[in-house]
Design goal:
The structure holds two protein chains of two kinds.
Chain A (H helix, E strand, L loop, with lengths): L4 E3 L2 E4 L5 E6 L6 E7 L5 E8 L2 E5 L6 E5 L5 E5 L8 E8 L11 E2 L3 E5 L1
Parallel strand pairs in A: 2-11
Antiparallel strand pairs in A: 1-3, 3-8, 4-5, 4-9, 5-6, 7-8, 9-10, 9-11
Chain B lengths: L8 E5 L4 E6 L7 E8 L6 E6 L4 E2 L4 E4 L5 E6 L8 E9 L13 E6 L1
Parallel strand pairs in B: 1-9
Antiparallel strand pairs in B: 2-7, 3-4, 3-8, 5-6, 6-7, 8-9
The chains are: A mainly beta, B mainly beta.
């Protein structure tokens, strides 16, 4: 158990809909990362937050947004869903987000999103 | 961060040592070598990291060549549960805003 909690574990929805994925980082970790993994692609970095502020952005679609709340949990919002958005979405956390060294990432077990 | 090259797949007999190579010939002095693994559809798991000295923990050993241009992850007694994709990642210690980038990794199959 990595200590990172993601909910829900599975999500089935229809095209055009909007969903919210939730992530609770390990206790004491200030940084949260979101990754997407589809069958034909590897782990793709989406976005990183550190203590509530956006730190880095990857190939995140405009239809996707995220935020990190004062209690440090994070939510990834996916809207106007398309079939191609079907993927595993992972959240990870780390203590400092790379600011002071030792950036071991701890990953949650992921949310499997199926868009039908 | 420097680029890494790993073989796409490897087999290992159960109980034997699994030696996973990684080439990082453009590594610079302030870059560390990290290893993660991903067991089927689970979240990636941190294994070990090092700078220039060999490192060992409860999961594995990391051997880095003297010129730091390559490294080997060693699983001393591989079990079926070690079947996974192993990622070698080179990363600056103070990585700032640079995210951790996963390549294609090596798919290790441990065979009974």
């Amino acid at each position: 158990d990595s200590g990172v909690t993601q909910t829900p574990k599975h999500l089935i929805t229809a095209t055009g809909q909007r969903v919210t994925l939730r992530c609770s980082p390990r206790s004491g970790d200030l940084s949260v990362y979101w990754y997407q993994q589809s069958l034909d692609q590897g782990l793709q970095f989406l976005i990183q937050y550190y203590n509530g502020e956006e730190r880095a952005k990857g190939n995140i679609l405009e239809r996707f947004s995220a935020q990190q709340f004062p209690d440090l949990h994070s939510e990834l919002n996916l809207s106007s869903l398309e079939l191609g958005d079907s993927a595993l979405y992972f959240c990870a956390s780390s203590v400092t987000g790379g600011r002071t060294g030792d950036e071991k990432l701890f990953f949650g077990s992921g949310t499997q999103l199926s868009v039908l | 961060d420097a680029k890494t090259t790993q073989p796409p797949s490897m087999d290992c007999a159960e109980g034997r040592a699994a030696n996973l190579p990684c080439n990082h010939s453009t590594i610079s002095g302030n870059e560390y070598v990290y290893w993660y693994r991903q067991i089927h559809s689970q979240g990636p798991q941190y294994i070990i990291h090092g700078l220039k000295n060999n490192e060992t923990n409860e999961m594995a050993s990391l051997i880095i060549t003297e010129d730091r241009k390559s490294s080997t992850l060693i699983l001393p007694h591989a079990t079926l549960r070690d079947t996974a994709v192993y990622y070698c990642i080179v990363r600056r210690w103070y990585s700032g805003n640079t995210p951790l980038v996963f390549g294609k990794g090596t798919r290790l199959s441990v065979i009974a």
